[in-house]
Amino acid sequence: MLEGSCNCKAIRFDVRGNWKGASNCHCGQCRKQSGHVWASAFAPVTDIQISGDPRWYRSSDSAKRGFCPTFGAFLFWKHDAEDTMSFALGALDGPTGLHLEKHIFVADKGDYYDIADGLPQHDQ
Known about the structure:
Layout: E1 2-5, E2 12-15, E3 20-25, H1 28-34, E4 38-44, E5 48-51, E6 55-58, E7 63-67, E8 74-79, E9 84-88, E10 102-104
Parallel strand pairs: 3-10
Antiparallel strand pairs: 1-2, 2-5, 3-4, 4-9, 6-7, 7-8, 8-9
């Protein structure tokens, strides 16, 4: 099981098994929301238990982003048509055993950095 929270602990979450897809997202929305890139993995919604009351921002016609209403931390991303939800790797407590698998939306990455870790890169 993975456990995580925002910095002020108003939102806590547990992820029970079946997580995958650890990636860095370089899309413009993730960069604006996080201040750089957003590292996340995903799991079935039924495997993620959230304590507290995150605020949900409708970031597009098909997806929403969950964040702490007190601290403002960007914690979750959910596509309407999927039964999975992404969660912030940076919000996890302690060792996770996870390793990044890929970079996504690299066509939108900032021009102020390079991706040089050898992981697969996907334009979208």
